[in-house]
Structures are given as structure tokens and as C-alpha cells.
User: What shape does this take?
Amino acid sequence: MRLNLPLILTMLRVAVIPVVLGLFYVPWAHARQIATVLYAAAAVTDWLDGYLARRWGQTTRFGAFLDPVADKLLVAVCLVMLLRDAYVQNTPADLLGVLVAIIIGREITISALREWMAELGQRTSVAVSWVGKWKTGFQMTAIGMMIWKIPTFGLPWYSMGYWLLFVAAALTIWSMVNYLRAAWPMMRESGE
Assistant: This one.
């Protein structure tokens, strides 16, 4: 495996996950805000690594595998971290639990669907759509706002992020339905 900048960025995205997790829980002043900055940098590399790999012709099989894994790990770990924090703080977390289940459940479903479609040679049938890109944008923004938590500039970041997570969950369901609809003809053929 030959390292290049896009692959290094993807690997750094995975490496930053335990750092964000650790900073989220340490009782240091501004640790959550530092965690948010690291999380935001990782979220930016979600777009940047793929862009650079395509532009510079540096796509690799390992990078194509690791990129979506890094994205899903970052989102899933942060969502579970936020859900646990809500329960520990005795804040209403029932709806947050539903949102987390929707988002993580969709990621598992679509990952399995893509793997199955690739086995059939139909992976392009479930390529990323604009709805999926919007979903990712809302999801990453909402999570970052919720990690930051402390109101600044008169803005209630956590509450704003919480409501953006509802938008992300709606887009999550919409994109999942689109992917399943695209794969449905192959599912019916396989069952016959």
C-alpha cells in the first residue's frame, strides 16, 4: 500500500475518533470545544480526501474501503457519545435515542445493501445521491453543534444541533428509501 495525502487524511479521520471521545469526557475547561474543532476538521476531510484523490488520480482500493468506514465510525461514535451524555445529564433523551437509531440503522442497512449490490455487479445502482450528501452535511453539522454544547454569541448550539438532527434523520430515511427503491428490481430477481 502506497501512502498519499488523501489516504493519510482518511487515516487521520479514524485516528481522531478516540481523541474526540476522550476530550468529550475529560473534565477540563473547554475540552468539548477542542473536541468539536477536531471533529469539524475530521468532517471536512470527509469531503477533502475524496476530492483530492479524484483530482490527483490517487484513488486506491484501501482508500475506497476506508473512507466510508471512517465516516460511519466518526458519526456512530459521536452519536452514541451524545446519547450517553444526555442520559447521564438526566435530559430527555428518548427522541434522541430514536434519531440515533434511525441514523445508525440506515448506515448499517445501506452498507449491507452496497456490499450485496457489489456482489451482483450492480454497485453503481446505489451510488451516493444528492440527498445522501445533504444528509451527511446536516448530520455532521448537527453533531458538531451538539458536541460544542456551550451557548456562545447568544446561540444555543446544542438545541440548534438537536433540531438539525431531526432534519438529518428525515433526510436519512429519504435517502434510504431511494437506495432501497433503486435496488428493489435486483432484490425481486434474486428471490425468483
